[in-house]
């Protein structure tokens, strides 16, 4: 009988042994060591060997770092430059240099579009929808893998839309309202499931046009739709996941949502830019808005966007000017909040949207 280790043609049936990640160590121990390398050096790790590159770009690496609280959060800012062209910048807030760097390679088809969605799910950024003066709303989606630093075309939206709200809830992306090719678009929303790589479309008359901002709070999506033409008040609707419907939010909560918002530890913060820049906090236990403090006009460059990492709120304005406020220790000095700032870009780029991504 022929031995399983040999054939009459001289070829071997034995699979070649895979080289270990680290010589002399089992791969699980090697992963334990390599996963503790700071994120800013992951590009260097990918240059060592093909196995290291595949590991750093893998879901296994991403899941391991998250499971062991090793993941680090960077900020991504979608901007528009003086040539009315879209660009994207990245900030590592833990780096000693703390400077914004541009991401190259954005899909050429979306560089001149307006009203696009910019959202994070897992270790990927999604750039969706949008329109131009010479182009109707589109359903195109592009995906940026942050670990691989590559853009690819993603699954198209169910509905072509622009100037819409976008949030992640229960590990799914919601694309809500906005404008599109039919009169029903402002009253519809699409939901993307990454496990099936498909979108599903829904309809609800309580969603209204004129979307200005959105947040996720207490497991629900809130959308600020601007001022009602009837009451001149800010109009806010909330999505109830249990029923899959949209309802009007309480007027007292809606009344203080006058600017960009962010949620920190299930507490809603809003930057009021009507007279300078003032940070407000929604105290849901007593149903009141209370001022946290003012930010120095020498540091902020409205209009701004907000993101949060831990207890720190990052206020990002024109030219990616960045002010950091620790809301767990929000002291005041001379009437203004104590904060730190980071160098801005030499340009005056307008910030369209900001998101955090952790690996």
Automatic annotation (TrEMBL):
SUPFAM superfamilies: F-box domain (SSF81383), Kelch motif (SSF117281). Pfam families: F-box (PF00646), Kelch_FKB95 (PF25210). The keyword Metal-binding does not apply. Keywords: Kelch repeat, Repeat. Residues 76-296 form the FKB95-like N-terminal Kelch domain. Residues 23-60 form the F-box domain. The keyword Disulfide bond does not apply. This is F-box domain-containing protein. It comes from Rubroshorea leprosula.
């Amino acid at each position: 009988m022929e031995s399983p280790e040999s054939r009459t043609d001289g070829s071997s049936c034995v699979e070649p042994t895979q080289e270990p990640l680290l010589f002399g160590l089992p791969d699980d121990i090697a992963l334990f060591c390599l996963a503790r390398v700071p994120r800013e050096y992951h590009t260097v790790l990918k240059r060592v060997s093909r196995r290291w590159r595949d590991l750093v770009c893998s879901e296994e690496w991403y899941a391991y770092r998250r499971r062991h609280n090793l993941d680090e959060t960077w900020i991504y800012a979608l901007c528009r430059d003086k040539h009315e062209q879209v660009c994207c910048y990245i900030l590592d807030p833990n780096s000693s240099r703390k400077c914004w760097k541009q991401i190259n390679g954005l899909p050429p088809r979306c560089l001149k579009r307006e009203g696009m969605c910019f959202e994070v799910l897992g270790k990927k950024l999604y750039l969706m929808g949008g329109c131009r003066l010479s182009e109707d709303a589109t359903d195109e989606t592009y995906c940026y893998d942050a670990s691989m630093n590559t853009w690819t075309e993603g699954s198209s939206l169910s509905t072509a839309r622009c100037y819409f709200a976008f949030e992640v809830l229960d590990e799914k992306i919601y694309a809500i309202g906005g404008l599109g090719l039919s009169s029903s678009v402002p009253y519809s929303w699409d939901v993307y499931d990454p496990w099936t790589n498909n979108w599903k479309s829904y309809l609800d008359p309580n969603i209204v046009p004129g979307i200005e901002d959105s947040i996720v709070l207490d497991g629900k999506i809130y959308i600020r739709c601007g001022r009602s033409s009837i009451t001149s008040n800010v109009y806010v609707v909330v999505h109830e996941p249990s029923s899959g419907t949209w309802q009007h939010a309480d007027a007292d909560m809606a009344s203080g949502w006058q600017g960009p918002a962010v949620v920190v530890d299930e507490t809603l913060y809003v930057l009021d830019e009507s007279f300078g820049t003032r940070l407000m906090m929604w105290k849901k236990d007593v149903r009141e808005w209370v001022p946290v403090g003012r930010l120095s006009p020498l540091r902020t460059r409205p209009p701004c966007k907000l993101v949060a990492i831990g207890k720190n709120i990052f206020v990002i304005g024109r030219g990616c000017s960045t002010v950091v406020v620790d809301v767990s220790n929000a002291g005041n000095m001379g009437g203004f909040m104590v904060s730190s700032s980071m160098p801005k870009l030499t340009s005056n780029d307008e910030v369209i949207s900001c998101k955090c991504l952790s690996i």
